[in-house]
Amino acid sequence: MRAFTHGFWGIIGGVAAMIVGAPMLLAQQQARGKGLTDVAGIRVGHYTMPQRPTGCTVILADGAGAVGGVSQRGAAPGTRETDLLNPLNAVEKVNAIVLTGGSAYGLDAATGVMKYLEEKGIGYKVATGVVPIVPAAVIFDLSFGTDPKIRPNADCGYRAASAATNGPIKEGNVGVGAGATVGKLGRAEDHRGPMKSGVGTASITLPSGLAVSAIVAVNAVGDVIDPTSGKVVAGVRNADNTLADARRLLRSGASVTAPRSGENTTIAVVATNAKLTKTQAGRLALMADDGLARAIQPSHTEGDGDTVFGLATGTWSGVVEMTTIGGLAADVLSEAIVRAVSQADSSHGLMSAKQLGTVPTRIK
């Protein structure tokens, strides 16, 4: 087993060295942008609750909205209105998406976003006015901080929507990322513990004008891996504050903590300015989900509710090539995941990648 493990990681290191040029170029392009809001027609707002580290993040699609899709691969999701995104069902466009803390309780934040949009006359037109279309997904952060009864509500959603702008997006311990953590495979009896995570965002714009971007809240069971190097950025910590590396723990046969259903989850939104159908928006989310698997090990576990939304604003008139768009979506999502842990700060006794010194050089 040891020979296999060493040989495996030697191969991984060699492959990473061979491909590092392309991801680094992508990272450099992303570093010059604003993140999700580099896609025209998208605005983002956070609200962080002052009483406990939790909150919500709202993504608004201006005008008539954006064509929406979803990929839901985790086994323990907490979501709202995702059935509407099925191509077989009615309603082509969504007006907003909510990413929130507070577990299922936090879904109430979407009600506040609906109120905000209704006041502005934005939503699906019906005989009595409008019905805003606001899908949502949650992370479980009730055990982080003090009172678990403090969680996002409708007022939080309204405040986040009111604060939404098309400017640069704050990352780290803010909004839905305020109570996010990673690396929860370690057992307390082995003196292993998790690390602080948060919100991250990344984007890329091609010379043609095609833009693809992502925002993510990382609250995963697994470790966050930098795909450009294969190194762990944040995850299970040993007693001496070194990184245990969940991949090595699993391959060595070490005892690990079984993920508790519903108490983890990575939730994200990927967006493009391309004109996509509802089916293609679903494919966008599905292909982007591969970026989640690249950057989180293990991912899509029984204890994660991993959910990725896809949005297409249709402001770019170029030829749609889903292989390109979906491939870029996976790249920007994996980079956003690395940024989520890299921009987080230590909180409530949990160390961050900044404190540990594991933030990739390109992000510092």
What would you note in describing this structure?
The chain has eight helices and 18 strands. By secondary structure, the protein is an alpha+beta fold. It has one domain: L-amino peptidase D-ALA esterase/amidase. Helix 3 crosses helix 4. The two termini are 36 Å apart. The model is unreliable at 1-25 and 27-32 (pLDDT under 50).
Strand arrangement within the widest β-sheet reads 5-3-18-16-13-12
What count of structural domains?
Answer: 1
CATH class, named Alpha Beta
Structural class: alpha+beta
User: Average pLDDT value?
Assistant: 88
In short:
The protein is of the alpha+beta class and 364 residues long.
Topology:
Blueprint (H helix, E strand, L loop, with lengths): L1 H18 L1 H11 L10 E7 L6 E7 L4 E7 L6 E2 L12 E2 L1 E5 L8 H11 L4 E3 L2 E3 L4 E3 L15 H9 L18 E2 L12 E2 L2 E7 L5 E9 L3 E4 L4 E4 L11 H7 L12 E8 L5 H18 E2 L9 E6 L9 H21 L10 H4 L8
Parallel strand pairs: 6-9, 16-18
Antiparallel strand pairs: 1-2, 2-6, 3-5, 3-18, 4-9, 7-8, 10-11, 12-13, 13-16, 14-15, 14-17
Descriptive labels:
five-stranded mixed beta sheet, six-stranded mixed beta sheet, disordered N terminus, 364 residues, single chain
